[in-house]
Automatic annotation (TrEMBL):
Lineage: Bacteria, Bacillati, Bacillota, Bacilli, Bacillales
Predominant localisation class: other
Protein name: Deferrochelatase
Keyword RNA-binding: no
One of the record's GO molecular function terms: ferrochelatase activity
UniProt cofactor note: Binds 1 heme b (iron(II)-protoporphyrin IX) group non-covalently per subunit.
Source organism per UniProt: Paenibacillus algorifonticola
Any GO BP: iron import into cell
Family to which this protein belongs: Belongs to the DyP-type peroxidase family.
């Protein structure tokens, strides 16, 4: 259980100090393979092919430069190309649509072709332009599904990573698998469901409009036909920027501020230490990338809603209204887990989420989580709602796993949550224009 990044708010604080679910229901891989007709099916990008879509994307980007001038003035366009992939250090947008894919490609060349096509399409979609050139030919299927036509880019970011199964030997890449890229161990209290776990490829799409985010995943899935199929998807949300003009730290579905303790993404030293992988880590192709952990955490909201405020605050280790550590007044006040009251009792409970997650302060991860709601659980008659926990770290085995191991054993919050989904991905470094995602690996 953790938090949603709110870098804008933290930067403001630092300045002061210094001066239903569209795709939610999962289908089995076998059903998807049958549905999508995998076998002799080739890559479907309208009728343009990979070369056509890449050529069209270059034209689209040229057009987008002019179109984005006005949109960029309001910060509506975020660059796809760069040293690092967007969507990691990027301040969290309003919505997320996360998708895990399984590869059905027959060769490494097919995988490379897929990534090239995805790169061209992603570069166009993040600029708010149509994919491909066949959108006005009455004799061909449109190369873009069209539901985002006329909509703004909505700060869309598309972030790609590969899971441990990507290196299982099918494509001759087992020797390039990072040692830290392993499926997570079983944690105490896990009730993982296969339909929310794993995947050869993970794609995180974030945007300030859910229809724009859905458009991205829909078209990436369409482009992948014959080479990859969806394994599972989850939508997420936070309070929108329109609902909170002050840009305060978002609250999770338990009513507590979620995203206070993240490292400062504007501090390159902190990011290199905690988030960005380095060639010195022994995996040169990951330099500039990051390791992503995805956990689907269901909240027992009905039980939580019957808990007293004092119990809720003791569970998190923070005051609900202000977000301040217990015993403090302001959200970003320094946390002192060793501070005791007049009776020698820790002011912040030792088994609170804050105390355990912080520890001695040496372990840090970049949280980028969203709330989710999947409607009613017909088995229990209760809400299926909670947190789509996403975090980025430089080395999962040294950062997230030790932290979660401690939380799973002692966290008072475990009374109110259960982890139902789990996946890990190695997110590629950024890509330069003319290149493609995963180029350093492939």
């Amino acid at each position: 259980m953790s938090s949603t990044t709110n870098n804008d708010d933290k930067q403001k604080h630092n300045q002061k100090q210094a001066g239903d679910s569209v795709l939610e229901k999962s289908m089995s891989r076998r059903d998807l393979l049958r549905l999508m007709g995998v076998g002799g099916a080739g890559l479907l990008i309208g009728a343009t092919g990979v070369g056509g879509i890449m050529q069209a994307a270059n034209k689209s980007l040229a057009v987008a430069t002019t179109a984005a001038t006005g949109a960029g003035a309001s910060g509506d366009v975020l660059p796809f190309y760069g040293v690092h992939q967007a969507g990691i250090a990027t301040p969290s947008q309003d919505f997320i649509l996360f998708a895990a894919f399984d590869l059905t490609a027959a060769s490494i060349n097919d995988v490379r072709t897929l990534f090239q096509a995805w790169t061209a399409a992603s570069a166009a979609m993040t600029q708010g332009t149509m994919i491909g050139t066949d959108n006005n030919n009455l004799n061909l299927p449109p190369s873009d599904t069209g539901e985002a036509a006329g909509l703004s880019p909505s700060k869309t970011t598309i972030t790609f990573g590969v899971g441990p199964s990507f290196f299982d030997g099918r494509f001759g890449l087992s020797g390039k698998k990072p040692s830290s890229l392993e499926e997570l161990p079983a944690f105490g209290g896990d009730e993982l469901q296969p339909e929310w776990c794993g995947g050869d490829i993970g794609v995180q799409v974030c945007a300030n409009d859910m229809q724009v985010a859905f458009h991205a995943i829909r078209n990436l899935t369409r482009i992948a036909r014959g080479k990859a199929v969806l394994r599972w998807t989850t939508e997420g949300f936070q309070r929108t920027s329109g609902a909170d003009k002050q840009g305060a730290t978002p609250r999770n579905l338990m009513g507590f501020k979620d995203g206070t303790a993240n490292p400062d993404t504007s501090d390159e030293t902190q990011m290199k230490q905690n988030v960005w992988a380095s060639a010195d880590d022994g995996v040169p192709w990951m330099a500039g990338g990051s390791y992503m952990v995805v956990r689907r955490i269901r909240m027992r909201v009905e039980v939580w809603d019957r808990s007293t405020l004092s119990d809720q605050e003791a569970t998190f280790g923070r005051h609900r209204e202000s977000g301040a550590p217990i015993g403090s007044l302001k959200e970003f006040d320094t946390v002192d887990v060793n501070k005791k009251d007049e009776n020698g009792k820790p002011i912040i409970p030792a088994n609170s989420h804050l105390a355990l997650a912080r520890g001695d302060g040496s372990l840090k991860i970049l949280r980028r989580s969203y709330s989710y709601s999947s409607g009613l659980d017909n088995r229990t008659g209760q809400l299926d709602a909670g947190l789509l926990f996403i975090c980025y770290n430089r080395d999962t085995s040294k950062q997230f796993i030790p932290m979660q191991t401690k939380l799973s054993r002692m966290d008072k919050l475990n009374e109110y949550i259960v982890h139902t989904g789990s996946a890990v991905f190695a997110c590629f470094p950024g890509v330069s224009e003319g290149g493609y995602i995963g180029e350093t690996l492939l």
